[in-house]
Amino acid sequence: MEVMQYEVLPAPQGYYIALFDEALRTFRRVSAESYRKFGEACQALFLGTWTPA
């Protein structure tokens, strides 16, 4: 079974949702949106209201 590890990470313009890439051994951005607050990004991740980039 493949485990997908999502994280909320900081960016200069706020926060975004990222997914760990096993091949690259780093996180890559997966959300089209940038969120001003950490809590907003977490809420979008948990509710599934974010848009894939």
List the helices and strands and how they pair.
Elements: E1 6-11, E2 14-21, E3 26-29, H1 38-47
Antiparallel strand pairs: 1-2, 2-3
What features would you describe in this structure?
There is one protein chain. The protein is an alpha+beta fold and 53 residues long. It has one domain. It is 19% helix and 34% strand. The chain is built from one helix and three strands; from the N terminus they run βββα. The protein has one helix spanning 38-47; strands at residues 6-11, 14-21, 26-29. It has a three-stranded antiparallel sheet with strand order 1-2-3, with helices on one face. It is globular and about 30 Å long. The mean pLDDT is 95.
Question: What's the short story on this structure?
Answer:
Helix content is 19%, strand content 34%.
User: Care to count the β-strands?
Assistant: 3
Helix fraction by DSSP (H/I, runs of at least 4): 10-25%
Q: Strand sequence of the main sheet, in spatial order?
A: 1-2-3
In sequence order, what are the helices and strands, one letter per element? EEEH
Shape: globular
Secondary-structure-based class equals alpha+beta
Overall pLDDT, averaged? Answer: 95
Strand content: 25-35%
Number of domains: 1
Distance between the termini: 24 Å
Assembly type: single chain
> What's the helix count?
1
Mind summarizing the main beta sheet?
A: 3 strands, antiparallel
Q: Which runs of at least 5 residues are low in confidence (pLDDT < 50)?
A: none
Radius of gyration from CA coordinates? 11 Å
What descriptors fit this protein?
single chain; 3 strands; 3-stranded antiparallel sheet; alpha+beta; globular
